[in-house]
């Protein structure tokens, strides 16, 4: 399989479009990577459409959002392509890779690792911000330059830091219950120590709050939703994100929702607001 080709694992008619599951040989990770694409009816009729990329959280795969979020119906109405990917490389059998659910497999944290044994393969930052959009735009009817990015939890962190680090790649941004200040919380500290080494100075490049403090900006409004019944609230630090955005004059709407936990019922409830946010910005 060449680096630019992909194989189709399955396709399913869905709200007049097609939900497909695919695999390709990734040059970023040096492994096979699974991804999924929802093509709305407009794309099947021959139009190129904006693409909204979703980054999932710890323990997830490219399938989680597709089967749990209930986003395809509105994506069909809005004419949005939905793209999801896996949350880490797989099949490497690196030492320690499968010992915990918050590091290694399904916990790639959307960064490019710099220390052994992770550095040659745990390169989800390059994968998400360069290789995957190039693959999608070469082989699916996605409009180049009309890319949105959002995600949940670890994937919300991935969306925020990707768009702050690569503002020219992404034209719209949002997050659901993101890990907003990873270098200050156990999930992020464990991942960053493992992938980036012991020096916290290196962690700032992948921390949304620290990026904002250092001058990074996303050139557009950012939408974040957070449940107040979230069992992982202490790992997420929405107040820190709000303060960093305020100090940086970064437009941010952070909505807090009483009673909602961290799971996909929360995501199902608010995902349509995120699709509408992205559609408004990507179709301007
Ligand atoms: N260890 C638990 C919890 C895992 C979990 O809640 N994962 C979240 C993301 S947490 C931060 O990135 C998730 O999205 N899970 C998928 C789901 O379907 O809810 C476990 O393994 O269950």
TrEMBL record:
Q: One Pfam annotation, family name?
A: Esterase
Tell me the GO BP annotations in alphabetical order. formaldehyde catabolic process
Q: Which Gene3D superfamilies does the entry link to?
A: alpha/beta hydrolase
- Identify the GO cellular component terms for this protein: cytosol
Q: Which InterPro entries match?
A: AB_hydrolase_fold, Esterase-like, S-formylglutathione_hydrol
| Keywords (A to Z) from UniProt | Hydrolase, Serine esterase
Reactions mediated catalytically: S-formylglutathione + H2O = formate + glutathione + H(+)
Instruction: Please list the residues that make up the active site.
Output: 153, 230, 262
Give one GO term, molecular function aspect.
S-formylglutathione hydrolase activity
Enzyme Commission number: 3.1.2.12
Q: What class of enzyme is it?
A: hydrolase
Q: Which family does it belong to?
A: Belongs to the esterase D family.
Return the protein name: S-formylglutathione hydrolase
What species is this protein from?
Stagnimonas aquatica
Q: What does the organism's lineage look like at the top?
A: Bacteria, Pseudomonadati, Pseudomonadota, Gammaproteobacteria, Nevskiales
